[in-house]
Design a protein that fits this description.
Oligomer: single chain
Strand content: 15-25%
Distance between the termini: 21 Å
Number of helices: 11
Largest sheet: 5 strands, parallel
Number of strands: 11
Radius of gyration: 20 Å
Helix content: 25-40%
């Protein structure tokens, strides 16, 4: 159950359109649904504001489809992340109607248009094209969580003029997500230009000393900009979820 549905039930009781006992029955249902391989949390959106998402790696297409069915049966959208193209094709064969976004590796079962819940826009700023899959994940997830999103690509610090040309766009955003690999300097630069929270996403791109994103992670954690917070390496989904919650405040 999502917050909107819970609020609808309470308002229906207030208007006298629904008996309190009927509303209570809806709230009394278990907060999870058992499937053949797991236990799906169908009240996460009610508690946390973000519904359960499906992390595809390690799951079979049939297992992914099970979770999608459980969520859709509760009138909730279903979002699977890090879905390989061949896995997406198999899931869609089991459950027609899903929308696969290849460059973001996302599989979505839900409305084509999502109502806006954010109070402003989220800007996703990407250092280089090699970081684009993670940035696209962040942007696509944020859109499906009800936000207006602006995606700014290929504006890394190796050519700082590219970023400075977009300062008006950066300053219009209510929350920013900065995605970078290599040395991971982009979030600090972005944060120095805006008076908004910046969520830094280190990417696993870069040569040997980049340590699979470890160098960028440490760079972002040691940023001197006080408005920077950091999520895990390649975690575009986590950045989008956090940005969405901030944008609703």
């Amino acid at each position: 159950m999502e917050r909107e549905r819970a609020l609808e039930l309470l308002q229906a009781v207030q208007r006298g359109e629904l008996a309190p006992a009927e509303a209570l029955e809806s709230f009394a249902r278990p907060p999870f649904v058992d499937t053949a391989h797991g236990r799906v949390d169908v009240q996460r959106a009610l508690r946390q504001g973000i519904p359960e998402a499906i992390f595809a790696p390690g799951k079979t297409p049939a297992q992914i489809a099970e979770v999608v069915r459980a969520l859709r049966a509760e009138d909730q959208p279903a979002l699977a992340t890090r879905v390989a193209p061949e896995v997406a094709r198999e899931v869609q064969a089991l459950l027609p109607g899903g929308d696969y976004v290849a460059d973001a590796r996302l599989l979505w079962f839900g409305p084509a248009e999502v109502n806006l819940r954010g109070k402003g826009s989220i800007a996703v700023v990407c250092a280089g094209m090699a970081d684009l899959p993670v940035a696209r994940e962040a942007a696509e997830v944020a859109q499906r969580l009800g936000n207006k999103v602006e995606l700014l690509c290929d504006v890394g610090v190796a050519g700082l003029h590219r970023l400075l040309a977009a300062v008006p766009l950066l300053r219009e955003a209510r929350v920013l997500i900065a995605v970078a690999g290599m040395e991971g300097a982009l979030p600090s630069v972005v944060a120095g230009l805006v008076d908004k929270p910046v969520i830094a996403v280190p990417c696993s791109t870069g040569y040997g000393a980049a340590l699979g994103g470890g160098a960028a992670l440490l760079c972002m954690l040691t940023s001197c900009a006080p408005n920077v917070a950091v999520v895990n390496i390649d975690n575009g989904f986590g950045a989008a979820a956090l940005a969405s919650l901030i944008n609703r405040l």
